[in-house]
Amino acid sequence: MSALLDGIAQNNFVIVGRAGIDFFTDAGVKIEDAERVTVDLGGSSANIGAGICKLGGQAALVTRVSDDSVGSYCIKRLKHYGVDTAYVGTVGGEFRNSLAVYESVVDEHRNVIYRNGAADFQMSDADVEAVDYGRFGALITAGTVFAAEPSRAATFKSFELAKAAGLPIIFDVDYRPYSWPSPEVASDVLSRAAAMCDMIVGNDEEFGFMAGDYSKGLDKARSLSETSVDIVVYKMGHEGAITFASGEEIRTGIYPVKALKPTGAGDSFMAGLVTSLAADFDLKTAILRGSACASVTVSQPGCAPAMADTQTLETFLADHPGPTTP
Q1: How far apart, in whole angstroms, are the C-alpha atoms of residue 160 and residue 12?
Q2: Tell me, what CATH number does 114's domain have?
Q3: Domain range enclosing 26
Q4: pTM of the prediction?
Q5: 67-106 burial, b if ≥16 CB within 10 A, otherwise e?
Q6: Which one of 33, 99, 288, 312 has the largest count of C-beta atoms within 10 Å of its C-beta?
Q7: Which 8-state DSSP code applies to residue 118?
Q8: pLDDT tens column, 202-261
Q9: Does residue 213 form part of some domain?
Q10: What's the total number of domains in the chain?
């Protein structure tokens, strides 16, 4: 585990994945009732990068965006949040940036994702080969990047290059069924990716999916920690998380808040977890700080703009009575 923590301690991450554009409603407004929406950066990997930078870390994104005004918007917003865009390429033709339209409502929440001809799926071997991995301490990716070619092969290539440069690999399973050709392909690819990683974060449904049976998800997480993975975080929503590391099982609760929407929680959790480990907090405390970041994000509209910065996180932790007992 020391190599993993040493890499994270540099607080400088290369993130392989997508940047998209989000349209979201004001607090409490359903989409069909909206007369206006707010626009900002989205996409799981971009959100993680924005969250890391807002918490004092450094992050660079490796992806493709569409060669149009929306792609330009995404690049500008990445820069706004402090994310290095040196490895963000463009692609023309009919490829387009992903779009998410969602409402700032919890009850019967709806989140519509437009991913046809996604520009980020056009990321190639050449894109990941252009990265100077020696600049960074660790590589982070989210599972959606594996859903189609050539992005899938390019990401596996980035894993090989990162390992050759001594970087640990951190994987957010982030299974989105609508992006994949079939559950069978997804299960096979995500399981292969997981076996190459040093840290894996996923929820109970995602681990159950990889195990082929929801009831076996916890066993799958535990098994990964006993074989090839240093840290496995098994998230259970409002019930908290179980983290497997060095033969221990760490159980943690959550920080209850009045949520506006469920989106962005996992991305914020990842950003809070890795930056807290980089700041030399112990693993349990880092997990709780990640949980606090997730609570901050779901209590506000949007994803990237709702990611906690350092002051927001510290104020939240000082004022909140949590966490719950796991």
Answers
A1: 19
A2: 3.40.1190.20
A3: 2-319
A4: 0.97
A5: eeebbebbbebbeebebbbebbbebeeebbbbbbbbbbbe
A6: 288
A7: B
A8: 999 999 988 888 889 999 999 999 988 999 999 999 999 999 999 999 999 999 999 999
A9: yes
A10: 1
